[in-house]
What we know:
The protein is an alpha+beta fold. The chain has 3 helices and 5 strands. Bound molecules: adenosine monophosphate. Adenosine monophosphate is lined by residues 6, 17, 31-33, 41, 88, 94-97.
Amino acid sequence: MDPYTIFADIIAGRAPASKVYEDDDVVAFMDIRPMTPGHLLVVPRVAAKCLAELDPVVGGKLFQVGQRLAGALRESEVGCDGVNFFLADGVTAGQEVFHVHLHVIPRTPGDGFGLRGRPTSPHRADLDYLAGSIRGALARTEAAEGR
Length: 147
Ligand code: AMP
């Protein structure tokens, strides 16, 4: 996959962006196709294509900055009274730009934004079965990483 993304150019200052925040690890700027007014992207400076490539410390930083920006959005002229975080990891999840980023989406009543999909009502046994499978995968991954 081509490692180039427009976000690399924005981070390097070669492409325009309406920035709201930057530090040594992350840059945050306005999404050019906002789902709602004030829609922000928080982007790590390091060009990780997906969550599996992202240093978890930097991943935590994405959330920390997103949390601060959510507060700022509520206090700004955006005037939202709710915020959604969204992160698409992989094509199937809707990822279009292959440089990890956290969407911070301000919400107001009736803005039309929402997750599509229908919740299901599985039996507890099915939830327990998958929980066991995920616990096993987590343990194997962490053992392989020496954690
Ligand atoms: P995703 O589907 O999670 O990969 O979302 C990519 C997001 O990047 C979309 O919401 C786009 O509108 C946004 N985007 C793409 N190019 C730019 C750009 N040059 N400046 C700001 N946002 C962008």
